[in-house]
Amino acid sequence: MAVCARLCGVGAARGCRRRQQRRGPAETAAADSEPDTDPEEELIEAGAAGLSAGPAPPPRLSLLELPPELLVEIFASLPGTDLSSLARVCTRFRRILHTDTIWRRRCREEYGVCEDARGLEVAGVSCRDVYAKLLHRYRHILGLWQPDIGPYGGLLNVVVDGLFIVGWMYLPPHDPHVDDPMRFKPLFRIHLMERKAATVECMYGHRGPHSGHIQIMKKDEFSTKCSQTDHHRMPGGRQEEFRTWLREEWGRTLEDIFHEHMQELILMKFIYTSQYDNCLTYRRIYLPPSRPDDLIPPGLFKGTYGSHGLELVMLSFHGGRALGTKVTGDPNIPAGQQTVEVDLAHRIQLPDVEQQRSFSELSRLVQGVQEQLRQQGAPAAAQSPHQPMEPPAKDPVEPGGAAAPSSQAQPFVLPVGVSSRKEDYPRSYRACFYGTGLIAGHGFTSPEHTPGVFVLFDDDRFGFIWLELKSFSLYSRVRVAFRHAEAPSPQAFEDMLKNIQSLTS
Ligand SMILES: [Zn+2]
Fold first, then answer.
1. Which of 422, 428, 434 is nearest to 464 (CA)?
2. What are the structural domain ranges in the chain?
3. Distance, CA 224 to ligand 1 centroid (Å)?
């Protein structure tokens, strides 16, 4: 607004009257961006300055003297949230702000909406409506979210899609195919019905969109409610619902799953998660910020978790450590917990491929690192994962540099007796590090950090050998370009990790 007052100057004061009574749609949309100063006061001050004694002031250029097409150009380049204040300056500004090209540009630049004019005409809405009633109104729910479904968690990306805001639920591929792409389905959508307020629709179930509701509770938290849960029901009742869920979630029938413990876990998940089909709360998560000295680009990975199936894990780097945080979880280790922690300062050099088959040889190597850590008096497992960042490891135990492992691939084979859900795991690795993996009883009872080996295969795949469990998890990068998912600052990311962990511990 200061810009406007300066440009209006004395000459413009006659045309500028602050509108107080009527509020335009943009104002209601941007009510939280009230300027600190009263534009009228600024105008008076500017006028007083012009009347004061002293050398003649330089000729002032009035913004109002500019041709309307130039004003449209100027206004279109301002943030949409500032336009409401502009509309209150004077009737002329207000009139010019009705120009839809201004709002089209704001929609495009701020939200990436590239709807053509015809599409809007067909829908019977203006860009100003789209901006104010849809995009601006629901801007706080755009981004990456974790649903609060007990230990199971999940991943939701709310994005602008044409003239809709859509909440996409992302699911890992079917177990154990970690390299397959992510699956996704819409959980809700918001759109403008002609010029009315935006409508929220629940997309759950197989009977198409139906009435729903969204509540933005506080910063970084919102909830969805379904108003017609009968749309989620199937004619065949719970049996049919379970069979359909199983087919979608696991890609198979219960008879195909011979493992009794796995059958139990699957049934438990169905019963537990279906309680949440009418109401869900989401908490914001961010993708990990990346730094040039990271071992590999951080991000989301799909990993094998034995009978629990595939789970989503977020890999992030914290100085000399890498953390794997669960985005989805299970009744043993819930979502939000740190499943693996890697000590990047302690590299493990595996023996030649024949010796790698010996489990006792691998145990001996890991015990060697544990002994070193004991002597240093700082066992990695006992460290809090949220201590201030340590500098990256400059003096690795092994020659060659821990933070910059040799890119030369070496042959890899799992020790005999270590089970892997996926038999065709990578047969060459780039580097191995000492790490700990979190294990616990059902219900996250007696959690314990147990020793293991982090195996880096390439930029998009890593593994973890759980020594005590004698099992191997394989992780493969999630290749989805999630939108609105960047953390505003490294600290915001750290806070988010701490927050989601504390909710389930
Ligand atoms: Zn519904």
1. 434
2. 2-115, 302-504
3. 10
Closest to 473 measured CA to CA, from 365, 288, 333: 333
Q: For residue range 22-34, what is the model confidence (pLDDT) as tens digits?
A: 444 443 343 343 3
Whole-number Å distance, alpha carbon 30 to ligand 1 midpoint, is: 30
Q: How far away, in angstroms, is 155 Cα from ligand 1 center? A: 18
User: pLDDT at residue 397 above 80?
Assistant: no
pLDDT for 226 equals 96
Among 338, 319, 286, which residue's Cα sits nearest to residue 394? 319
Q: Pick from 456, 459, 440: which is nearest to 448 by CA?
A: 440
Q: What are 427-473's pLDDT values in tens digits?
A: 999 999 999 999 999 999 999 999 999 999 999 999 999 999 999 99
Question: What pTM did the predictor assign?
Answer: 0.82
CA of 246 to the centre of ligand 1 (A): 19
Q: How many Cβ atoms from other residues are within 10 Å of residue 289's Cβ?
A: 18
d(CA 146, CA 300): 13
**Ligand 1 centroid, distance to 64 Cα (angstroms):** 51
- Residue 266, phi then psi, degrees to nearest 5: -65, -45
